[in-house]
Amino acid sequence: MKAELFIARRHITSSGGAFRKIITGLSIGGVIIGVGSLIVVLSVENGLHKNFKEQILATTSEITVMKFHHEPIQDYESLTKKIYKIKEVRSVMPVVYSKGILRSEKTQDGVVLRGVPDSKEIKNLEGELCGIVLGKTLANKLSVFLYDSITLFGIGNIGSMDIRSKEFEITGIFDAGLYSYNSTLAYLPMKTLQNFLKLGDTVTGLEIRLNNIYDAPEVSQRINGEIGYPYYAPHWIELNSNLFSALRLEKATMFTLLLLIIVVACFGISATLIMLVIQKTREIGVLRALGADSKMIKRIFMLEGIIIGIIGTVVGIGIGLIMCFILSKWQIINLPPGVYGIDTLPVYMRMWDFVLVGFGAILISFLASLYPATRAAKLLPSEAIRYE
Questions:
Q1: φ, ψ for residue 73, nearest 5 deg
Q2: Which residues contact 78 (CB under 8 A, 6 or more apart)?
Q3: What is the pTM assigned to this prediction?
Q4: Measured between alpha carbons, how far is 237 from 225 in angstroms, rounded to an integer?
Q5: How are beta strands 163-174 and 132-135 bridged, if at all?
Q6: Tens digits of per-residue pLDDT, 70-81?
């Protein structure tokens, strides 16, 4: 095998004319561009997935127990005890959800109201949960600031037309990191919202936190089996299935498209090796005459394709790493938050993606070398030397 590797390296590094060098350089460059692009795109897609998951779970729980037809849950304490018997459950918190309209001096907008027992559930909060706490985008839309007064309109008794209004002081502004939450969500103390909606001591949901967020589908199914109708327990993956499906489809599409760059580059590798076989026909004949069998000749040209692929892959991964580091360090690309829900491009590098891309690029390079290597192996010594 050492002899085959030595000859393969000599073929690649030895002079072979300007045209062949250009073709070889283009082939390696194509692999570099394809691998580097795949590394950057996959890291950005991973960053988007990770960012969305973190920000969704910062504002909502892994599982939410609710009642059909959005009816209030009356005996939620006994329900909480049943749920705590499941070992994967870390915490259970009663909450109140409702919708309303907020009116400032200049404008008004619809809002999702969330009543929680304390302020620990609010991330990036500026202020306290003693009045009403708005998302920063919602506050901007309403042209209000911290400690301003704002009027809330809502339905008193759920199921009736008892429209009520009350003035609140804005005691906090939060940033959930997602545009949809920042522009529609408002927090209130649970007792305050219960009184406003005339719910008494009832709640509209139980938010469940788990030790492992990815246990949510299994635990949700178990909770549904334990408590049964009229309750149901959707989990965070189910509630955001459209978003995650779109992200997976986008990642698969971009991976396929960028993989085609590597495939096209490997056509260049195949063309380079075919030209090399034609150029080295006499040498192949001499090697066969000296005792080299067809398998040895085939291994030489297969190794040449693999070496070209390895060079392109290593350099491409290096460039991809540098680009990912630059994007994560300086955040040079800004996004419109109204479209993507975030304002900067997130980057999250995973070792598995590097291994997958590197292995795939080398494998495609190897496959591109099979035809030229097979053609070289079929050359007969007498025929190869005769035409030279």
A1: -95, 120
A2: none
A3: 0.75
A4: 19
A5: parallel
A6: 788 888 888 888
